[in-house]
Design a protein that fits this description.
The complex is a heterodimer of chains A (208) and B (252).
Chain A lengths: L1 E5 L7 H11 L4 E5 L2 H6 L2 E4 L5 H10 L3 H11 L4 E4 L1 H4 L4 E2 L5 E2 L6 E5 L11 E6 L1 E2 L14 E6 L1 E5 L5 E6 L3 E8 L2 E4 L7 H13 L1
Parallel strand pairs in A: 1-2, 1-3, 3-4, 4-14, 5-7
Antiparallel strand pairs in A: 5-6, 7-11, 8-10, 9-12, 12-13, 13-14
Helix pairs in contact in A: 1-6
Chain B lengths: L4 E9 L2 E2 L14 H10 L5 E5 L7 H12 L6 E4 L5 H10 L3 E4 L1 H5 L2 H10 L4 E11 L2 E6 L4 E6 H10 L4 E6 L11 H10 L4 E4 L5 H9 L5 E4 L1 H4 L5 H10 L7
Parallel strand pairs in B: 1-3, 1-11, 3-4, 4-5, 5-6, 6-9, 9-10, 10-11
Antiparallel strand pairs in B: 1-2, 6-7, 7-8
Helix pairs in contact in B: 1-2, 2-3
The chains are: A alpha/beta (208), B alpha/beta (252).
């Protein structure tokens, strides 16, 4: 089993590497790379993302052939891919952070700023919040409903097809915090920073 | 519902914890990695390291500690103390820190906050503000552990760092720090009311009620404490049970 964390020079992915390394110990061969050949030959891909939607999309586009390779992997060949935080947000058609930016367009929808009800709620949404599991999900195996996960974001993914939503969290409104469509998985929260429950999600993904 | 965070802070000097936890099970009371692991296993919502090493030559030490801790603790890790340059931030994040806390460098030039937030994202930029009361309802920003006056109004400065992209404010009352008499609630309230980013309360915790006051009366999103945890007076779990019994939502 080869799992690749895509390192596209955007933001800090050390924590993602540390957590996946911990779970992978002795079982899974973990690569951290942007090498197209290695990505193509891996069994699973993790797409992290920190910073703004625009800066992440720009960084992906900077690496020649990466976007097409990811699309072949996840959409054409339907191999498992997990997007984390902005990694998930980029599945959308469009994002509005910094400037209107085209996303990967894998799941129809947009990424817009969380409505904080005129300052009633602080942004970013930082800290531990419960997830309400909305449908059976392979990566939520043995994860209890209302488990706490660690969040840090100001924008939310709003998919058009609500059936892709696998979990929501309650802040100023109900925010989509996980999506799943066949082989495509995404979490708005950070499983790599969510203690034991987070590591379990990573383990579930590795075992798919 | 978003939970109120409990953040234990470890003061680290030349690679050793200054005020350690007094637990019998500890092999080495001065080892920051081991202590961070105890906190994380005990239910800490985040871990904070404050590097109080005087000299600049020892930066490698804290980076090495962060590297080791990040491999064992899977909750957010914030590191502060001596963060002055983009390279300092890069080094800490690469070592596995999730957030860095900027203090003096932000006071000297607030555009450093902007530069850092643009480069790394607001989510990992915390600005630490040390404030001291100078007159009724007026607080001033101090640096160097409360020794240096800056003439900058704390409320104005808090607004400035928010505009410049800070993701959180770590607010310490220099009047209260070390006194164990509770947070400066007035200061906390005025800063939480004047900004739209989360504020972490720090400085002065001596009892569990102080933590309650910081969250409920002061409006903080998180409470940071050092000594009540260090000496094993309270365990994180006890703190959370207490707050929960008073209807403050925490991650149990």
């Amino acid at each position: 089993m080869n799992v690749t964390i895509v390192d596209y020079q955007s933001g800090n992915i050390s924590s993602v590497i540390n957590s996946f390394t911990e779970v992978a110990k002795g079982k899974v061969n973990l690569e951290v790379t942007s090498d197209i050949k290695k990505i193509k030959s891996s069994d699973k891909i993790v797409l992290p993302g920190q910073g703004s939607f625009k800066s992440c999309v720009d960084s992906l586009n900077k690496i020649n052939g990466l976007v097409d390779t990811l699309k072949d992997f996840a959409i054409i060949n339907k191999k498992p891919l997990l997007g984390i935080c902005v990694g998930l947000q980029m599945f959308a058609d469009v994002g509005y952070e910094e400037a209107e930016t085209k996303g990967l367009g894998w799941i129809a929808g947009k990424v817009s700023k969380i409505d904080n009800q005129n300052g009633k709620f602080k942004l970013p949404h930082i800290g531990w919040n419960e997830i309400e599991i909305k449908k059976e999900s392979k990566i939520f195996k043995d994860i209890k409903n209302n488990s706490h996960m660690y969040f840090v974001h100001s924008y939310e993914f709003v998919p058009e097809d609500k059936s892709v939503i696998s979990a929501k969290t309650n802040y100023s409104s109900k925010i989509v915090c996980a999506v799943e469509r066949e082989n495509l998985f995404g979490t708005q929260f950070h499983p790599e920073k969510s203690d034991k429950a987070g590591l379990k999600i990573i383990d579930n993904f590795m075992k798919l | 519902m978003l939970k109120n965070r409990i953040i234990p802070c470890l003061d680290v000097k030349n690679g050793r914890v200054v005020k350690g936890i007094n637990f019998v099970e500890l092999k080495d009371a001065g080892d920051p990695v081991e202590q961070a692991k105890i906190y994380s296993d005990g239910g800490a919502d985040e871990i904070c390291f404050l590097d109080i090493t005087a000299s600049n030559e020892n930066r490698e030490t804290i980076i090495d500690i962060v590297r080791k801790t990040a491999k064992e603790c899977f909750v957010p890790l914030t590191v502060g103390g001596g963060v002055r340059t983009i390279k300092n931030i890069t080094d800490l994040l690469l070592a596995g820190a999730d957030k860095v806390s900027i203090n003096t460098a932000a006071v000297k030039d607030v555009s450093f906050v902007k530069e850092a937030a643009k480069k790394f994202g607001s989510q990992c930029i915390v600005v630490a503000i040390d404030a001291k009361k100078v007159s009724n309802n007026k607080w001033e920003v101090f640096t160097h552990g409360g020794r240096n006056k800056t003439g900058i109004d704390a409320v104005d400065f808090a607004r400035q760092v928010e505009i410049n992209g800070a993701g959180e404010i770590l607010l310490t009352s220099m009047d209260k720090d070390g006194t164990k008499s509770g947070y400066d609630i007035e200061l906390l309230k005025v800063i939480t009311d004047s900004t739209n980013i989360p504020v972490i309360a720090s400085g002065g915790v001596g009892t569990l009620d102080h933590l309650y006051d910081g969250l409920v009366k002061g409006g903080a999103s998180a409470v940071l404490a050092a000594s009540i945890f260090h000496y094993g007076e309270y365990k994180i779990k006890e703190v959370k049970k207490y707050l929960n019994s008073k209807n403050v939502s925490v991650r149990l």
